[in-house]
Design goal:
Layout lengths: L5 E5 L32 H11 L4 E5 H7 L5 H6 L5 E5 L6 H14 L5 E4 L1 H5 L1 H4 L7 E3 L5 H13 L9 E4 L5 E3 L17 H10 L17 E4 L1 E2 L12 H8 L5 E2 L2 H14 L4 E4 L7 H14 L5 E5 L5 H10 L3 E8 L3 H7 L5 H13 L4 E8 L6 H18 L5 E7 L9 H4 L6 E3 L4 H7 L5 H4 L2 E3 L4 H22 L4 H28 L33 H10 L1
Parallel strand pairs: 1-2, 1-3, 3-4, 4-5, 8-11, 11-12, 12-13, 13-14, 14-15
Antiparallel strand pairs: 5-6, 6-7, 9-10, 16-17
Length: 563
């Protein structure tokens, strides 16, 4: 087997989840992955592709997915056989605070002389604390670490000084911590490859499919993603990807975009191999209407015709959807409206009117949009329990207005489990009516070892206590479940399954709270250590129409033969 020089490892949220009893609740119900957050960041693909193109063989191993899907997978035995120049571990999302650090500890125990590199948005925020852990040798900061990682790898191989590597935090020979300037902030993304031929070649090269898979059921639902930008023009108050957060964490003053032609090439590259949905991350109108027009024209010219998912950051006119329809006949839309309550939405940082949102949904569906996902959140500023339940009732009216066969799919979930580091709420919680239970990386790491999501939850608001957030989440989920059944979005059988899961979790959390109150947090132990894939809905409710990976095999083989 060829030897990679850099091995990128993705950890589960909680490293020893197979030995623990935790009620994860709905913390991952509206994303494809399980509560272990086994989906690695898209930056893994761009870093690996960039390094491979520059002559540094790189391998991605999704440790989380292998632990989840292979009962007999022994992490230490597997890692002991790897001898790269360096290991890289992501701490992009804060729910990996425990799993990533524990995986790094295991790597360091097995390979004390091989450097461990961390990166990601959460790593970039907590870099001063993170570099102090003994199992961490380097932290590469910022939102675009492809070039700094390449320079670091070259220095490690040469045994040379890393003093001039941009964005790097490191330890010198005496163990003293050094922080280089965060100076590598590319103005555009056109030099970064997003080559989906890389994963295909990597599977063949290292003879491992499960380690490359993005999440648990990806073979049945092979959704992929491309990014329009790094940075954001919006300032949603609790978002770690907001303009405020990117400035403070990544030193980014302006959004960096990928050119429309290159973005169309990225999508075309994916569809050479797969016919699953391609999610375009970032509203294609964010750089301006001209960017969206140029992208649609490039997609048409290159023959992109598979299912595409577009993200909306603001309401859109019907003429926009008409342009989309001509190029993307299999189009799906996602939009996060946070709340039906306009006062709550303004307090969160979005000033849209409900009438504009309703016109957006109507315009999209009338223009042939196959599916329109609307997302609502719980735990927002100025949002109390009445407001949450009013969102449920409002959404029921929308479904009745548009009809169950229209393609409208509403979802609701808590803003959980953590407030994003670097966001305005995280930096100034009192200004927005929040109280945070976790401030440091270590506090978040410890919180993840709690027996239930109700204890992991890192915040409460002036309007909803932590317990009230938990309670109204389940109440709203029951309301959504009943509403979907009545509107024909789900069958009575599915609704019964979901209701059973909700009530199961409510009962378990009540039992945990009682035991913890009587005997302390470590008292909880459940006989059945079964991982619940979703607590308040079924994952199938989130899925856009897709052809399975196995049905795409002829296309993959054909494309490889032509490559």
């Amino acid at each position: 087997m060829p030897k990679p020089e850099l091995v990128l490892l993705h950890a589960p949220s909680i490293y020893d989840f197979r030995e623990r009893s935790i009620v994860y609740g709905p913390i991952s119900d509206v994303i494809p992955s399980t509560p272990l957050f086994e989906m690695y960041p898209i930056g893994f693909i761009s870093i690996a592709g960039y390094l491979e193109k520059s002559g540094v063989p790189t391998r991605i191993v999704n440790i989380a997915n292998r632990m989840l899907t292979e009962r007999g997978f022994n992490v230490e035995r597997f890692l002991s056989k790897l001898h790269p120049v360096a290991f890289g571990i992501d701490l992009h999302w804060l729910p990996h605070a425990q799993g990533s650090l524990e995986l790094a500890r295991v790597v360091k125990k097995l390979h004390p002389s091989i450097p461990v590199i961390f990166g990601g948005l959460s790593a970039s925020y907590f870099y001063r604390e993170l570099i102090e852990y003994p199992q961490v040798d380097f932290v590469v900061r910022g939102d675009s670490t492809e070039e700094p990682v390449l320079q670091l790898m070259r220095r490690i191989k040469q045994g040379a000084s890393v003093e001039d590597v941009a964005n790097l935090s490191w330890k010198d020979k005496q163990g003293a911590v050094q922080h280089n300037a965060l100076s590598y902030v590319p103005a555009n993304l056109d030099d970064l490859p997003l080559d989906y031929a890389y994963p295909v070649r990597s599977v063949i090269k290292y003879r491992s499919l499960s380690g490359m898979l993005p999440f648990k059921n990806w073979l049945d639902y092979p959704v992929t993603a491309v990014f329009t930008c790094r940075g954001c023009t919006l300032n949603c108050h609790s978002c770690g990807g907001s303009r405020f957060a990117f400035k403070g964490v990544c030193n980014r003053d302006e959004v960096a975009y990928r050119s429309p032609d290159m973005l169309a090439d990225d999508i075309h590259s994916i569809q050479r191999y797969l016919r699953g949905p391609v999610f375009i991350i970032g509203d294609i109108r964010q750089p301006g209407e001209d960017y969206a027009d140029r992208l649609l024209e490039a997609m048409s010219r290159k023959g992109v015709n598979g299912p595409i998912v577009l993200e909306l950051f603001a309401p859109a006119r019907k003429d926009f959807f008409e342009k989309v329809r001509k190029v993307i006949p299999h189009c799906n839309i996602q939009m996060s409206t946070e709340s039906h309550d306009e006062e709550v939405r303004r307090a969160f940082g979005k000033g849209w009117q409900n009438a504009d949102i309703e016109e957006t949904v109507k315009g999209a569906l009338e223009s042939g949009c196959r599916r329109f996902d609307l997302f609502y959140m719980i735990g927002l500023p100025k949002q109390d329990s009445v407001s949450v339940m009013d969102t449920v009732h409002y959404t029921g009216k929308l479904l009745k207005e548009f009809g169950s066969k229209s393609g409208l799919h509403p979802h609701i979930s808590p803003l959980a489990p953590f407030i994003d580091p670097g966001s305005q709420v995280f930096d100034r919680p009192e200004d927005y009516g929040y109280r945070l239970f976790c401030r440091t990386l270590e506090e978040h790491r410890q919180a993840l070892l709690s027996p239930a999501w109700s204890h992991i939850l890192s915040y409460e608001t002036e309007w909803l206590s932590r317990q009230e957030i938990v309670d109204v989440t389940y109440e709203a989920a029951l309301g959504f479940n009943q509403m979907k059944k009545e509107c024909g979005l789900i069958s009575a059988h599915v609704a019964d399954q979901v209701e059973s899961r909700i009530k199961r979790d409510q009962g378990l959390i009540g039992e945990i709270d009682k035991r913890v109150q009587e005997h302390g947090r470590s008292a909880w132990e459940q006989e059945e250590k079964e991982l619940s894939l979703a607590a308040t809905c079924l994952k199938e409710e989130l899925q856009w129409p897709a052809r399975s990976f196995l049905r795409s095999m002829p296309r993959i083989l054909w494309s490889l033969c032509r490559a």
